[in-house]
Amino acid sequence: MIDGLFHSYCTAPGDRQVMIGLSGPGSVLGHATKFSGGPRLVTAISVRPSILLEISEAALEQIAENRPEIWRAIADFAYTNMRRTLHMLAELMALPPRQRIAARLLASATSSERGLIVSLSQQTFAEMIGVSRKTVNLHLTAFERAGLIRLGYGWIELADSGRLREVADRE
């Protein structure tokens, strides 16, 4: 992705779509079924105007054969995505809600003219981390009172990412 913002969704049991992450500039979206096999894993939905560079499966095959250094970079992106996914899974399993919320805010923030912003509603953010909207609101309100974040309609600004990191890392 060259510019923009996408929300990524995956199918959960009961054929329900759940948000699993955000993708901004520099992200790699999608996969080539020729190389990875199987059906599409993730649905990406643009939430603001975006510019994408599409590379066909044929072009990927030529890159793999003729430009191994570029293919290694593509493999690095895939590894980074897998690491990010496993880290999120570990957060879900190991962290209580307060820490999980702080960790996901840090992981989901993108730079903007206002600073570090998470462009999500509280409902969508709650779905992404596996807690209720009420739980998210309770902790976000406490974070705002403590000066860690600022809340807006459909966005959360990270006002003090250092202290937010302390919350995510302790307890």
Compact description:
The chain is 49% helix and 25% strand. The protein is α+β, with helices and mostly antiparallel strands and 171 residues long.
Written account of the structure:
Residues 95-162 form the HTH crp-type domain. InterPro entries: cNMP-bd_dom, cNMP-bd_dom_sf, Env_Response_Regulators, HTH_CRP, RmlC-like_jellyroll, WH_DNA-bd_sf. This is Crp/Fnr family transcriptional regulator. By secondary structure, the chain is α+β, with helices and mostly antiparallel strands. The protein folds into 2 domains: 3-92, Jelly Rolls (Sandwich); 97-169, Arc Repressor Mutant, subunit A (Orthogonal Bundle). The protein is 49% helix and 25% strand. It contains 7 helices and 7 strands. The chain has helices spanning 33-36, 57-66, 68-94, 97-108, 122-129, 133-145, 161-169; strands spanning 3-12, 16-23, 43-51, 110-112, 115-118, 149-152, 155-158. The strands form 2 sheets. It has a 4-stranded antiparallel sheet. α4 (97-108) crosses α7 (161-169) and α5 packs across α6. The longest helix has 27 residues, at 68-94. The mean pLDDT is 87.
